[in-house]
User: What shape does this take?
Amino acid sequence: MNSKIITVDGPSGVGKGTIAMMIAESLGFKYLDSGSLYRSLALKLFEKNQNFDEVLSNLDYWMSDILIDFKYAKGQKSKIFVNGEDFTDKIRTEKVAMLASKIAINKSARDMLEKYQRSYIKDPGLVADGRDMGTKVFSEAKIKFFLTASVEKRAERRLNQLKDQGISANLRNLIQKLLLRDKADMERTISPLIPAEDAIIIDTSDITASEVFNTAIKIIRENLKII
Ligand code: C5P
Assistant: This one.
C-alpha cells in the first residue's frame, strides 16, 4: 500500500474540517474528521451514564459495546453512526465538545480511537483533521498543516456554524468555552494540541477558506510526487 496521508490539525473553530474536506475532494482522497469520533464516543457514554467520574474510572467497561462508524463519500456531507444510530447532527453542540475534551484525556479512549483512525488509511490517500493527527496518529505523514486563528475569529465562525444549524449562542460565552477547551487540549499530558515539528503553520484569522485551500493545495501539489 502506498497511501498518501495529509494531516490538518489545530484548535476548534479554525476551519480545519472545511479545508481538510476541500483538499480530500480535490485530490479524490478519503477524509476523516477525528473530532467527530471523540464527540460521538463522549455523547454515547454520557447517554449511558451521566456520572462522568464514574465512567472515566472504568472506561474500558463503559466503552466495550460501543461501535463507531464514520462515513465519507465525495461530494457528500460526512456522517457518523454509533451502534447504527445516526449521531451526525446531535454531536455538534458545545456541551458535547466539552464532554469530548474530558474523554480525550483518557489513554484507553485514545488508543481505541487511534486504532479506528488508522483503519482509514486507504489508497490513493487520506486527509485527516484533528488535534494529534500529525504528532501522533499519522506521525509518518509527509505533509502536515497546523491551522491557527485568533479566538475571536474562531468564536465568530463557530457562532455562524451554530446559527446555520438553527442553534442560538452568545459570542462572549463561546469565546470563554473555546478558551477553556483550548486550555484542556493544550495542557493534557497525552497527545496535547501542539504543531508537529514538521508542520506548516497557516494563520487563517484574516483569510478566506478558499485562500487557505489555495495555499495548502499549492504546497501539496508541489510535494505530491515525493510523498
Ligand atoms: O475537533 P472537535 O472540536 O470536533 O473536537 C472535539 C474535542 O475532541 C476536542 O476539543 C478534543 O478534546 C478532542 N479531540 C482530540 N483529538 C483529536 C480530535 C479531537 O483530543 N484528534
